[in-house]
Amino acid sequence: MSQTEILLASRVPPFLMASLESHFVVHQRDPMPAPEVLARIRAIVGGGEAKIDKALMDQLPALEMISICGVGYDGVEVAAAIARGVPVTHTPEVLNDDVADLAMALMLSIGRQLPQSDQFVRANQWVNGPFPLSRKVSGAKLGIVGIGRIGQAIAKRAAAFDMQISYTARSAKADIPYAYESDVVQLAAKVDFLIVITPGGAGTRHLINAQVLKALGADGYLINVARGSVVDEAALIEALHNKTIAGAALDVYVDEPRVPEALRQLPNVVLTPHMASGTAQTRKAMSDLALANLQAHLAGQALLTPVPECRAR
Ligand code: 8YV
């Protein structure tokens, strides 16, 4: 058994935890190990939400690589890793279907009021009269914020629902058959459902702000399967409270796992606990890929899925 020592920066799926423990000496981050232990750490492993900054890397003189079990890596200070010659890997592609499935499920849930109607039956309110009418999803106008791999998987599913699809991204994509809007406010103004699936980080912080929500309007719904940071959560709570948007379905939040009470109390939301990639099948595939990246590095082989910034130019 290898005595390679690694640091776990956040919770990872049980599949990955089991493999790591059978191959390596795994150190938890909380509490932080003693400096002599930190001096032997060769790799950091963490989930998509792990915060891995320069200050942490600076405590690890023997650090060689960072393997993220997640497609998003906005918590990693990639520039600091690159400056140290430390490559960062992530797990793209294998979760596209699950995240797109959950985006559709959330859109259908808030549009058709699934949790609310389930609650209605459970509370035996049906005997007093029918459930209020909900919002048709098939054929409605959908705006997708971010048309990367997952955004395209969402569009493919939405197309089967005969939705009229538009998107925004940094630039129009030549091979995408949907209408491009350069401005997210314009996109919000013309759609019924707005799905957010853009990377997190400083570049997209509060991209969905009060102005975008105003443009989405009293009949519009927001779905976020990206990162909590992309949406101005206070502005969203205000819009939902004042019914200046119709509803929101969220899988991600600013301060997970803490979800503001003001949000949890609202009737016009559907809230899931950052579970878009959370099926046994996909978390296993993500775990396998995160481990394979780590093992490739330790064997001196090419990394399978380095983050774009770390790919050979
Ligand atoms: C999970 C994610 O949070 O892939 C991502 O970016 O947000 C998720 O899949 C996590 O990384 C699972 O470990």
Question: Which key terms come to mind for this protein?
Answer:
313 residues; alpha/beta; Rossmann fold; 2 domains; 7-stranded parallel sheet; 5-stranded parallel sheet; 12 helices; globular; binds 2-keto-D-gluconic acid
What CATH architecture label of the largest domain applies?
Answer: 3-Layer(aba) Sandwich
Uncertain regions spanning at least 5 consecutive residues: none
Q: Which CATH top level class of the largest domain fits? A: Alpha Beta
Strand tally, please?
Answer: 12
- Beta content comes to 15-25%
Shape: globular
- Total helix count? 12
What name is given to the CATH topology of the largest domain? Rossmann fold
Question: Quick one: biggest sheet?
Answer: 7 strands, parallel
State the helical fraction.
25-40%
Mind telling me the CATH superfamily name of the largest domain? NAD(P)-binding Rossmann-like Domain
Order of helices and strands: EHEHEHEHEHHEHEEHEHEHEHEH
Report, as a whole number of angstroms, the end-to-end distance. Answer: 35 Å
Strand order of the largest sheet: 8-7-6-9-10-11-12
SS-based structural class? alpha/beta
Our count of domains comes out at 2
Rg is 21 Å
Give every kind of bound small molecule, once each: 2-keto-D-gluconic acid
What average pLDDT do the residues reach?
97
